[in-house]
UniProtKB/TrEMBL annotation:
Belongs to the HIBADH-related family. Keywords: NAD, Oxidoreductase. This is Oxidoreductase. Coiled coil: none annotated. InterPro entries: 3-OH-isobutyrate_DH-rel_CS, 6-PGluconate_DH-like_C_sf, 6PGD_dom2, 6PGDH_NADP-bd, HIBADH-like_NADP-bd, HIBADH-related, NAD(P)-bd_dom_sf. GO terms for biological process: organic acid catabolic process. GO terms for molecular function: NAD binding; NADP binding; oxidoreductase activity, acting on the CH-OH group of donors, NAD or NADP as acceptor. Transmembrane segments: none annotated. Residues 2-153 form the 6-phosphogluconate dehydrogenase NADP-binding domain. The active site is at residue 165. Residues 159-280 form the 3-hydroxyisobutyrate dehydrogenase-like NAD-binding domain. It comes from Mycolicibacter sinensis (strain JDM601) (Mycobacterium sinense).
Length: 295
């Protein structure tokens, strides 16, 4: 039996994939409606994280905050059956190290395994999964993680995968913010946004933002890519903290963080992170949207 805790934008499609691959699942989320939806793909519902850890040998979690991750790790530590706990959440290396210590005290091997690839990657089994923790626990969980994407072992040192994830997400935060800024500039100057995206993607300025996020969620004005602004800001702040702890200058990250903090203030934590462009659009008085002229 496999446990899954946290059935949100990422956790729900991941649990769904595991069930589709034939895994027997026991799941928990405080939102009763998503536990009921998971029953539709055959998952057993549990009433708490502890109850999941009483029934499953390997427990996975995908949680929205450091607090939720710590609370779940503490509950899982008391589980009767669990041997390996895999936290797929992004919490930063310091929090991951604390969770590893909590779980180790209860005799449970902890892997921090943050993921990249978004909701689409979760649905299609195409996630990059960065893993750190005991190698033997990785070997135990590897086949399971391969059903979700590509597990890459980073280091045995707890939290190393979190550092890698923050590096990845600062790049994603930067390219989305930079793409938003140049798109607004081009549109203000009279360029067609559809043509701009086509040229960026054919040339050297293309990024994941221009290839995927803008065509899917900005140009059609749906702003439904599936990652909340509040979570993006969490990751940017965690990156700033870790860089500061290392005593490093961070000129790019500081500039990018300023725009993300404005997005949080103006669009709210629940807004989709593609809403970052709206902050720049409002200041410029333009919209990066539908095709404006025929070609
Ligand atoms: P989400 O807010 O959509 O889902 C989180 C789920 O956890 C919710 O269903 C919530 O009810 C549940 N939850 C909250 N507190 C809980 C608790 N104490 N016990 C059990 N369940 C609890 O978040 P998400 O977008 O799915 O992201 C989850 C994690 O994955 C975050 O750490 C995020 O940074 C990371 N992540 C997200 C994406 C993405 O594209 N959405 C991509 C990569 C990584």
């Amino acid at each position: 039996m496999i446990g899954f805790i946290g059935l949100g934008n990422m956790g729900f499609p991941m649990a769904n994939r595991l069930a589709a691959a034939g895994r027997e699942l026991v799941v928990y989320d405080p939102r009763v409606e998503v536990v009921q939806q998971a029953a539709a793909f055959g998952a057993h519902g549990a009433s708490s994280s502890r109850a999941v850890a009483d029934r499953a040998e390997i427990v996975l979690a995908s949680l929205p905050s450091l607090q939720a991750s710590a609370a779940v790790a503490a509950e899982v530590t008391n589980g009767a059956k669990v041997a390996v706990f895999v936290d797929l959440s992004t919490v930063g290396s310091a929090a991951a190290q604390r969770n590893h210590a909590t779980l180790a005290a209860g005799g449970i091997a902890a892997l921090d395994a943050p993921v990249s690839g978004g909701v689409g990657g979760a649905q299609q089994g195409g996630l990059a999964i960065m893993v750190s923790g005991p190698r033997a626990a990785f070997d135990t969980a590897k086949a399971l993680l391969e059903e979700l994407g590509r597990p890459i072992f980073v280091d045995e040192k707890p939290g190393a995968a979190q550092t890698m994830k923050l590096v990845n997400n600062l790049m994603a935060a930067t390219t989305l913010a930079a793409t938003a800024e140049v798109m607004v500039m081009g549109v203000k100057a009279g360029l067609d946004p559809q043509v701009m995206i086509e040229v960026l993607n054919a040339g050297s300025g293309g990024t994941h933002a221009s290839r995927d996020k803008f065509p899917k969620a900005v140009l059609p004005r749906t702003f439904d890519y599936g990652f909340a602004t509040g979570l993006m800001v969490k990751d940017v702040r965690l990156y700033l903290d870790e860089a500061q702890t290392l005593g490093l200058p961070r000129p790019i990250a500081d500039a990018v963080a300023g725009l993300w903090e404005s997005t949080l203030r103006e669009q709210g934590p629940e807004s989709d992170f593609t809403s970052v462009v709206k902050v720049l659009e409002e200041a410029a008085g333009v919209t990066v949207g539908a095709i404006r002229r025929s070609r």
